[in-house]
UniProtKB/TrEMBL annotation:
Organism: Geodermatophilus nigrescens
Name of the protein: Phytoene desaturase
BP terms from Gene Ontology: carotenoid biosynthetic process
Residues in the signal sequence: none
Family in the record: Belongs to the carotenoid/retinoid oxidoreductase family.
NCBIfam families: crtI_fam
Pathway of action: Carotenoid biosynthesis
GO molecular function, a single term: oxidoreductase activity
Length: 500
């Protein structure tokens, strides 16, 4: 039985704690915040309540595997609801598209909204994405990252290499398969699921819409924060000691192997294994003293492009919106201008800035637990944003910036048919700087590093650190961000540590 310390009670850390506890290890979880969940946050005020992070579950089988491996079915712990429609889109030309919650229904909906032939184009793209998924799921997403060895597994069959097309971007794949420009915009959006730019992100990200539509989009009744609480409960049931309000100052090592952690409040906890759910950049730059063993990982992090962040409005609204979907996405006329502003490229080269005309994402669950009465709504509004970088980018703490930009986002919403300005009871703005402070994500980068560039996946830190006994979970490590991949990172680490 190993003594395990898990740094961070985000979903990755909690899932690792539950799995390692089920394997017979003695586990202690240390979380700096006063509650569990990390980016699976929750905000309540005056009866209005909001998920402040992820707002849907995809690939629920990964969560079912976690709960089955640690003591009981997922459905006994949370109430999953399949969304139909999965999302409602509003395009710049006025076209509206409600994407059904079941894959077989999607082509017909596309034909109806965009014209005959649109469904066939999308279906052909998803057929390619399904083939990509079959090739990459096991050797890449469910296995440790092992550099050239991982590439070798993917390259055993030349036809597989041609299917995955590691040299091709997501934008390039869309240009090849999709004639309708609105479909190309729809595909581009999925690059943002890994905090990336579709013009640089790999074509294999087409697996994201395939997974979403093949396995469904799901909501946890009562809010997705309940998922984090359920995993924390499962970890405790397996013997884990989950301590909140307990920040870690340093990961300790001796002779090239971890020996425990030093607490910010003083004192040390001895450990045979340390699992870090902290942002990988924060781990290698601060929690872990630099040494020659970690030099290559730190170099890779400096070469990678940080992921985008997000600017959020929590809107407490009077009244109800007829026909409002659970998720609504309203696109701008110039999507490329958004990515230029976020990443400081193109017309904004070297000078990232808040997006003047952003894509607007609205999550508005029809869930009584999120509103004070039936004549109210609680909207989580997200727009893509550059990370907090006062020295070389945007200083989101600059006086007045958050309020000014909140007003701009409300104006954009109004122009896209989502004018709620006369219904607002109150509004809370949350910037990338707030995200950085609350979760430890450097600069508020939601996914750590982006998928920009063909080598981006191999610049992402692996789950086994160069220091023996140290492992990484969460969205900033392999295999990446998003609830399914974060949960898989914990499965990979549990396999690396092994049973007691």
């Amino acid at each position: 039985m190993a003594r395990v310390v898990v740094v961070g009670a985000g979903l990755g850390g909690l899932a690792a704690a539950a799995r390692l506890g089920a394997l017979g290890h003695r586990v202690t979880v240390l979380e700096q915040a006063d509650g569990v969940g990390g980016k699976l946050g929750w905000f309540e005020r005056d009866g209005h309540a909001f998920d402040t992070g992820p707002s849907l579950v995809t690939l629920p089988q990964v969560l079912r595997d976690l709960f089955d491996a640690t003591g009981g079915p997922l459905e006994d712990a949370v109430d999953l609801v399949r969304l139909d429609p999965a999302v409602a889109y509003r395009f710049a030309d006025g076209t509206r598209l409600a994407v059904p919650g079941h894959l077989d229904d999607v082509p017909g909906a596309l034909d109806g909204a965009l014209g005959d032939g649109a469904g066939g184009q999308w279906r052909a793209l998803l057929d390619r994405a399904e083939a990509m998924w079959a090739i990459t799921e096991q050797p890449f997403l469910r296995s440790p990252l092992r550099g050239a060895a991982t590439l070798a597994r993917l390259a055993r069959d030349p036809s597989d290499v041609g299917t995955v097309a590691p040299w091709q971007t997501l934008r390039g794949l869309g240009a090849r398969h999709l004639r309708d420009p609105r479909l190309r915009v729809l595909l581009d959006r999925y690059a943002t699921y890994s905090g990336s730019d579709p013009r640089r992100a790999p074509a294999v990200l087409a697996t994201v819409p395939w997974v979403e539509q093949a396995f469904g989009s799901w909501y946890v009744r009562g809010g997705l924060h309940r998922l984090a609480e359920a995993v924390a409960d499962r970890a405790r049931e397996r013997g884990a000691d989950v301590r909140t309000g307990t920040p870690v100052r340093r990961v300790l090592s001796d002779g090239g192997r971890v020996s425990g952690v030093e607490l910010a409040e003083g004192g040390e906890i001895t450990a045979d294994v340390v699992v870090s759910g902290a942002d990988a950049t924060a781990l290698y730059a601060g929690l872990l003293p630099p040494n020659r063993r970690t030099r290559a990982v730190r170099r890779g992090l400096t070469r990678a492009t940080p992921s985008l962040s997000g600017f959020v409005l929590l809107l407490a609204l009077r009244g109800r919106t007829p026909g409002l979907a659970h998720h609504t996405v309203a696109f701008p006329a110039d999507y490329d201008a958004e990515f230029d502003a976020v990443f400081g490229t193109g017309r904004h080269r070297g000078v990232p800035c808040p997006v003047p005309d952003p894509t607007v994402y609205v999550s508005a669950p029809d869930d009584p637990t999120t509103r004070p009465d039936d004549d109210s709504e609680s909207w989580f509004v997200l727009v893509n944003a550059p990370r907090h970088d006062p020295d070389a980018g945007v200083d989101w703490d600059a006086p007045g910036l958050a309020d000014r930009y909140a007003g701009r986002v409300l104006e954009v919403m109004a122009a896209r048919g989502l004018d709620v300005r006369d219904r607002v009871r109150w509004c809370v703005a949350r910037t990338p700087a707030d995200l950085a402070r609350e979760t430890g994500a450097v600069g508020g980068s939601i996914y750590g590093t982006s998928s920009n560039g063909a080598r981006a996946a191999f610049l992402r830190p692996g789950n086994a650190a160069p220091v023996r006994g140290l492992y990484l979970v969460g969205g900033s490590s392999h295999p990446g961000g998003g609830l399914p991949l974060v949960t898989l990172s914990a499965e990979i680490v549990a396999g690396l540590v092994g049973p007691a």
